[in-house]
Every structure is written in structure tokens, then in C-alpha cells.
Specification:
Blueprint: H1 24-44, H2 56-69, H3 74-82, H4 94-102, H5 108-121, H6 145-156, H7 169-181
This protein binds fe (ii) ion (FE2) (2 copies).
């Protein structure tokens, strides 16, 4: 049901308990749009300039396809599809941006993988650009270290092959809606 109830304050310090009386319908309305909003971000990666061999949208679809083909669970496929959405606004810290957007809807493990995938991906090319490819070693003691190594190796770093049979976004849409739609979300 669409709600039109609005608070009446002009300054927060003058708001009343009535202004803050919980109204979950706004939350429900916004959650309904969330999958489409995030997939719209993903589609923007088609337009982003990149020196890589494949645009970020096709790379994301291939990363997700590789996770799917590997028999990964919904959440692993979900983060494979969306791990680079932070690139819409930032290259340098795109891992952290994507991780923050997805944080409420995924497990600690998945969040950690998305948040650190940039550094772990560095293992495959940073030695070509004068950076330390082993920078990921600083996280060796983390319980999610091995999972992040595996995820990057099997899905992310291999997903630049124009000849890999990659599935379209429509194929992954139900997974995106399922993960965003499940409640309570993992913490
Ligand atoms: Fe990335
Ligand atoms: Fe990536």
C-alpha cells in the first residue's frame, strides 16, 4: 500500500514522536525498488571508460556466470554480479563502495570478499604496474582470506574472456531479487 503520511517538522530538533511513529510502508516501497536501482548501477558500467579488455558490465556478467557454472550458491553469484558496481562512482575504492552498498543484505564473509577483492585481484597484475602483488598477504590471518583468494581466482580474475559463454542479466535477475528479498538478512 502506498503511504502519503509525512512528517511536519522543519528542523529535526523540533520533531515530535508522531513525526517518528513507525511507518514500514516507506521502507517496503523503497526495498521494492532496490534490485532495479542496483541493476541500473550495474548497467552504467557499460558506459564507463576502461582500458581493460572488456567493459565492466560484461565482466560482471561473466564473473557471475563463472560462479553459476561452478555450482556456487545464490549469494556467491550475487556478489559476483555486483562486486564492481562501486566503479560507477570510483575506481580507486570501488571495492569498499560496492561492499558498503551490499552490506545489509549479505553475510560477513561475502561482505569481506567484496570489500577486499580489489587488493586480492592485485595479485594478478600489480607487479606489472610497480605495485606489490602480495599486498593481500597482510590479511593472511583473516578467516575469510582463503575464500577471497578462491573467489578472485575462480571467478573475478578469469572473467575477461570474450569467448566464454556468458549469461545475460535477465538470467541473474531472479537471484538478485531473491537475495535482496530474503529477511532477516544475515548479519
Ligand atoms: Fe573490482
Ligand atoms: Fe571484477
Amino acid at each position: 500500500m502506498t503511504t502519503t503520511k509525512k512528517a511536519t517538522y522543519t528542523r529535526m530538533d523540533q520533531s515530535t514522536p508522531e513525526d517518528w511513529a513507525s511507518d514500514d510502508s516507506y521502507r517496503e516501497q523503497n526495498l521494492k525498488h532496490l534490485p532495479d536501482s542496483v541493476m541500473a548501477m550495474l548497467k552504467q558500467l557499460r558506459e564507463k571508460a576502461t582500458g581493460e579488455s572488456m567493459n565492466g558490465y560484461d565482466h560482471s556478467l561473466q564473473t557471475a556466470t563463472r560462479a553459476y557454472d561452478d555450482g556456487a550458491d545464490d549469494e556467491t553469484i550475487f556478489i559476483a554480479l555486483l562486486h564492481d558496481i562501486g566503479q560507477v562512482v570510483s575506481e580507486e575504492n570501488h571495492s569498499e563502495v560496492a561492499a558498503a552498498i551490499l552490506r545489509p543484505y549479505i553475510s560477513d564473509r561475502s561482505h569481506w570478499i567484496v570489500q577486499h577483492h580489489g587488493i586480492f585481484q592485485g595479485y594478478y597484475f600489480w607487479h606489472h604496474i610497480g605495485k606489490d602483488r602480495n599486498a593481500r598477504d597482510a590479511y593472511r590471518d583473516n578467516p575469510y582470506f582463503d575464500a577471497c583468494v578462491q573467489w578472485c581466482d575462480k571467478y573475478d580474475q578469469r572473467a575477461f574472456d570474450p569467448n566464454y559463454p556468458t549469461k545475460p542479466l535477465e538470467f541473474f535477475e531472479p537471484i538478485v531479487r531473491r537475495v535482496f528479498g530474503r529477511e532477516p538478512w544475515p548479519t
